[in-house]
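Aim 2, interim progress: modelling of the FE2/S2 (inorganic) cluster-bound target.
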Amino acid sequence: MTTETKSNPSGKGDGCERAPKWRTDFPIEWEGDHYVSRREMVKFLTLGSLFLACASWVTALATKFLRSTPTSELVIGSAAVLEREGSLLFRYPTDKDPCIAVRTQEGHLVAFSQVCTHLSCAVVYSKSDSKLNCPCHLGSFNLAGVPIGGPPTRPLPRIRIERRGDQLVATAVEV
Ligand code: FES
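Predicted structure of the complex, ligand included:
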């Protein structure tokens, strides 16, 4: 066999149907090779999908955990001042989180993050039309924090507040 392949390494033209020497030296199964590649691709896609599903699950859990993280209570001002002025600015839960409390025309006290959910400008209270307006792109929110005009599509995070005598106390952020 060795002498045959030496005289005609391609294995063609001698009327013989033997496989060429390169095929015996490098026995690559092309169909099998394609099959393995396909199988590995499917394996990769399956593992990739599984990884993404796990990452989404972990992200959802982390978000839920962070949202439900208890925040401390903080005295934010005087209820009498809020009733007189109609609105009150404060910071909660940290000094970097501007918020606004409003006394509605029905006498309810509500409070929201002051950060517009569009591009983070500060919303301001408009007593005349009972809305929180964002001056940057003319967004507006009703006094439930729901966007009712302009580009914002997400509601303002609500701050839970309680009245204790004349004190207003912020107790939690509701996202
Ligand atoms: S930042 Fe408030 S509407 Fe754009």
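DSSP finds four helices and ten strands in the chain. The first helix runs from residue 2 to 7.
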